[in-house]
Amino acid sequence: MHTRSAQLSPSATLSASTSLQRRPAARQAALQCRCLLSRFFPQQLKKPPELKALLDAIEGTNRGFSTTKEQKATILSCVEALEQIQRQSGRSTDISDGVNAVWKMLWTSEKETQFILKNAPLFRTQAGDVFQMIDKASGRLQNAILFPPAGCFLIDSSCEADGDARINFKFNKATFRVSGKDYNLPPFGQGWFETIYLQDDVRVAKDSRKDTIVFVRDGLPRDLSQECSD
What ranges do the domains of the chain cover? Predict the structure, then answer.
């Protein structure tokens, strides 16, 4: 099985297996205040402090399912600040050209993903990394939740660009692989997601169901079904 870890700056290193660590209320308030202020005084910096504030805020949330209300408010405030910075920078072309990659999920507000991550032990397994692969040239999109050492929940979709930042998608196939067996599930929908912030190796997206996802780059586009193999 392929094992990769995200490469972030020392101050922003995050671990998918980090246990829940509640931050002091004062630090949460300071993070939220910083992000709220930045919405009114946006800064066009190469590496804006709002990005570090976001990565600090999602640390210890178990990729979303352990997020408290206070943490979620801070995270979403930081996301709004970064979205405003991206919009005012006029760097939409960078978003269009930069999303083709495999992305490792750091945090999500999506309930279904949170449920799988939290309840994987009920199925006698542990949730591993969560990836999204975007290849606009081939019109292919994959989303995968890994269950080490050789299992996964994999969704294959077709996709097409809709402007610089939005990608429309339609589910084609869903496969649950466990103990060397594949269980195919019927396709179940379509939608869109929009990259609202892209800086270096960090990407923030919102989707048609009003969820927010934070990713870190994990290399060039590749077939995620290979991640499920020994």
Answer: 15-228
